[in-house]
Structure formats: structure tokens, C-alpha cells
Design a protein that fits this description.
Layout: H1 22-33, H2 41-56, E1 60-65, H3 77-97, E2 101-105, E3 119-122, E4 125-128, H4 150-171, H5 192-213, E5 226-231, H6 235-240, E6 242-244, E7 251-253, E8 258-261, H7 271-276, E9 283-287, H8 293-303, E10 312-316, H9 323-337, E11 342-345, E12 353-354, E13 360-361, H10 364-381, E14 387-391, H11 426-443
Helix pairs in contact: 1-4, 3-5, 3-11, 8-9, 9-10, 10-11
Bound molecules: erythose-4-phosphate and phosphoenolpyruvate.
Family: Belongs to the class-II DAHP synthase family.
Pathway: Metabolic intermediate biosynthesis; chorismate biosynthesis; chorismate from D-erythrose 4-phosphate and phosphoenolpyruvate: step 1/7
Organism: Sporichthya brevicatena
Length: 444
């Protein structure tokens, strides 16, 4: 395989910003090239091993976080709330589903968005679409929407700050499983799902007491591994952060542990596939409702020619109405080919719609039903439902309808804060985790 890391430049590159100033882009890229890696190749290899377990049916992937991260984050609260939500979901899945859970955040790099339309219209004014803080500003003015390459450097810095905090929270005691109650403290009183979680946490406490009484050292539970991930959309950024691993001489994307290729940029002859096939990270590819089994097989050949366990995860996002019809063909043919990939369900991106008053939203019932369809398909084929990929936040936003604390369309305006797509709030996320744990148990 050619290791020329710049052949993508000759290929069609979709969804790239149209920078007006080439010299400013070159300066930003040069600065990025001089900066240290955000993640280390050895960590990516460790994650690949864990994803191999997912693909073999021995573990479950929980991947979640914002649709679009923002540079405008003050303090640590939002990230702590997000981590807490992921930790609580992971505990529910591990305990109630009895399965090891691999945890990946959609964070520390999720700053760029592919868009359906290059332009946005408001009250007769048309401007370039917002493409994530890594590209332009969400503010609706002509100047704010001009792509600014210095934002790539800000993306690096924001990712570094986020990762630093993630490492502090997850290794410094906050994520200690013996704190299983503490993560829920602000949640118990007024929430049925909080109470349900509390009951589960009490069982875990008893189990830990039992282990301690038997002389088992529970110190190993004091930290967790949560890996970073984002869509590898902006090729200049990803190329500048592709580095040669000193241990192996192989290229790795060091902008995040797990990088995925989106539904809109997975064209086989395209630049995204060309760059990502050359790095050694574990990678994901989104597959939407129009993906064919032949597309999936060709993606495997392009991205995982050596059939390396854990290398490739397919993240399917068919929509609730299509998952039962479209997914079996893909899973069936890929399984028959002998390839071992992870199958993960993104029940968000195929279920978005706009309300009459202009809010992009998703129904919790649709989200849940797509996951249910995903489990049904795998059960009928005897394959492994490997995980879920969610857009979520730890805050009590009102962006998706339904779930435990019923939110309907008329409530969406109350706390609609996403920069792009609607996220599940903490209650909805935990509700979902309990349902998924139940589905997992039923499948096994
Ligand atoms: O998160 C995914 C995409 O970036 C998003 O769904 C695109 O949204 P749009 O259809 O409003 O452009
Ligand atoms: C853009 C995204 O998804 P998809 O490529 O599946 O549309 C996303 O997950 O942010």
C-alpha cells in the first residue's frame, strides 16, 4: 500500500471549506504541523483491540456526545455533565446488560459539520451555512460565515483543553466506580429514571462490599478509559495531524483515538477514504439508508484490506422506518464475506425532522425503535449488535421530544441550545441506556 499521505489532494474532497485566503490556510496548517500529537498511537492500538472485542461479540460500544462541540465553553461543567451521563449509561449497560462497555466520547475534536446545503436562508437573506466552529461562526452575518483557517488552530487548542479535562476526570478519581451514587446525586429526587439508576447503584454497592469482604482489591475500579472521537471531515486538519509513530514507523491520525467518515463523504473514489485508509487508527464509517451491501464490501476492501480485527466499525443510521428492511442485506453479505467488522447503531441521524415552527428535532420513540430494529436484525441473523452511537448532552436541554420527562414540540423552545442537530438530554440518555440494556439481555 502506498504510504504517500498526500494523494488525497488529487481526489474529489467533499464538504471542505472554501477558504478565501490560501496563504492564511498554509500558515494555519504549518502551525498545526509544529504542534504535538493530541493522542498517542499506543492508545489508538489499545482501542482497536477493544473494538476487536466489540466486533467479535464480546463487548458493547457506547459512543456519544455533542452533535457539534463549541469553542464557547466556559468552565468544566458541561463536559463534566456529559461525562457523568456517559458513565451512568455505561454502568447501566455493564450491570444490567452484563457486558463490557467500550466508551468513546464524541468530543475533543467534533468541531466540523457536513451540511445538506451550502447555504442557509433566513428572512430572504442567504449566507453560507455554518459548518462547525472549526470552520466559521454560527452567527448569521456575512462576515461570521467566512471560513477562517485560524479556526483550525483553535480546534486543536480546544481539543487539547477538552482532552486534558477528560483525562483529569477519568483518571483522577471522579470516574471511580465506587462513586456510582455520587454521579446521580443531582438527579434522584425528581426523576423516575434517576431513582431507577439509584436502585441499580445500590446493588452495585452491595456487590462491591461483597467483593471487598472476600478480599478482592477494588482499586482497579478507580479510573476508566474514555477515548476521543470525531468525524474526520476537514482534510487539511487531519493531514496536519497525521504523524509517523516512532514505535512502528506507521502513520496515525493523532487528532483523536477513533475517527469516522461521514455518510456524505464516504465515496470510494474520494479524498476522505484515501487519507483514512493510510492511517492505522480504528476507524468508523457511517452507512445511511441508501448504502448497499456492495458499498459495504468495497469499503471493507478499501479501509481494511488486511482484515485487521477492530480496524473497521460500521455505524448504521438508517432511520426507524428503514432499519428492518435495509440493514439485513448489509449484515448478511458482510458476514458471508468472512469480514469481521463492528456493527453500531446511530439512531439519531436517520430520524431528524423539522417541526412546523422550525425546530430540527427527533422523537425519542423513533430513536428507541431504530435501536430495537437494529437488535431484531442482529438477533435474526445471529450476529452481534455491537453498540450505539448517540448525540447527547448532560444538560437538561429540550431538543428531542418524548422520553421519561415528556417533552413535546411546544416545549422545544425552552432550552434548545444545539449548534446543529438535536441531542438527547440526560434523562432521555439514561432512559435509553436502560432500554438498550434490556434489549441486550433479551438478545443473549
Ligand atoms: O450532524 C450531521 C449533519 O451535519 C447534520 O445532520 C446536517 O444537518 P443539515 O441537514 O441541517 O445540514
Ligand atoms: C454528520 C454526522 O452523521 P452522518 O454522517 O451519519 O450524517 C454526524 O454524526 O455528525
Amino acid at each position: 500500500m502506498s504510504t504517500d499521505l498526500d494523494t488525497w489532494r488529487e481526489l474529489p474532497a467533499l464538504q471542505q471549506p472554501d477558504y478565501p485566503d490560501a496563504a492564511a490556510l498554509a500558515a494555519a496548517v504549518a502551525e498545526l504541523q509544529s504542534l504535538p500529537p493530541l493522542v498517542f498511537a499506543g492508545e489508538c492500538d489499545q482501542l482497536k483491540e477493544r473494538l476487536a472485542a466489540v466486533a467479535r461479540g464480546e463487548a458493547f460500544l457506547l459512543q456519544g456526545g455533542d452533535c457539534a462541540e463549541s469553542f464557547d465553553v466556559r468552565g468544566a461543567d458541561a463536559l463534566r455533565a456529559k461525562l457523568k451521563t456517559l458513565l451512568q449509561m455505561a454502568v447501566v449497560l455493564t450491570y444490567a446488560g452484563s457486558v463490557p462497555v467500550v466508551k468513546i466520547g464524541r468530543f475533543a475534536g467534533q468541531y466540523a459539520k457536513p451540511r445538506s446545503s451550502p447555504v442557509e436562508k433566513r428572512n430572504g437573506v442567504e449566507l453560507p451555512s455554518y459548518r462547525g466552529d472549526a470552520v466559521n461562526s454560527i452567527e448569521f452575518t456575512a462576515e461570521a460565515r467566512i471560513p477562517d483557517p485560524q479556526r483550525l488552530v483553535k480546534m486543536y487548542n480546544a481539543s487539547a483543553a477538552t482532552l486534558n479535562l477528560v483525562r483529569a476526570f477519568t483518571k483522577g478519581g471522579y470516574a471511580d466506580l465506587r462513586q456510582v451514587h455520587a454521579w446521580n446525586q443531582d438527579f434522584v429526587a425528581d426523576s423516575p429514571v434517576g431513582q431507577r439508576y439509584e436502585a441499580l447503584a445500590a446493588e452495585i454497592d452491595r456487590a462491591l462490599d461483597f467483593m471487598r469482604a472476600c478480599g478482592v482489591d477494588t482499586d482497579a475500579l478507580s479510573s476508566v478509559d474514555i477515548y476521543s472521537s470525531h468525524e474526520a471531515l476537514l482534510l487539511e486538519y487531519e493531514r496536519a495531524l497525521t504523524r509517523i509513530d516512532s514505535r512502528t514507523g506507521q502513520p496515525y491520525g493523532v487528532s483523536g483515538h477513533f475517527l469516522w467518515i461521514g455518510e456524505r463523504t464516504r465515496n470510494l473514489d474520494g479524498a476522505h477514504i484515501d487519507l483514512l485508509r493510510k492511517i492505522r487508527n480504528p476507524i468508523g464509517v457511517k452507512l445511511g439508508p441508501n448504502a448497499t451491501a456492495d458499498d459495504a464490501l468495497a469499503l471493507i476492501d478499501a479501509l481494511d484490506p488486511e482484515r485487521e480485527p477492530g480496524r473497521l466499525t460500521f455505524i448504521t443510521r438508517m432511520g426507524t422506518g428503514k432499519v428492518r428492511e435495509n440493514l439485513p442485506r448489509l449484515v448478511d453479505k458482510v458476514t458471508a464475506s468472512g469480514a469481521v467488522v463492528g456493527w453500531v447503531c446511530d439512531p439519531m441521524h436517520g430520524n431528524t425532522y423539522e417541526t412546523a415552527n422550525g425546530y430540527k428535532t427527533r422523537k425519542f420513540t423513533d430513536v428507541l425503535d431504530e435501536v430495537r430494529g437494529f437488535f431484531e436484525v442482529h438477533r435474526s441473523l445471529g450476529t452481534h449488535p455491537g453498540g450505539i452511537h448517540m448525540e447527547l448532552t448532560g444538560d437538561d436541554v429540550t431538543e428531542c421530544t418524548g422520553g421519561g420527562h415528556v417533552i413535546d414540540e411546544a416545549d422545544l423552545h425552552q432550552r434548545y441550545e444545539t449548534a446543529c442537530d438535536p441531542r438527547l438530554n440526560r434523562t432521555q440518555s439514561l432512559d435509553l441506556a436502560f432500554e438498550v440494556a434490556r434489549m441486550y439481555r433479551e438478545n443473549h
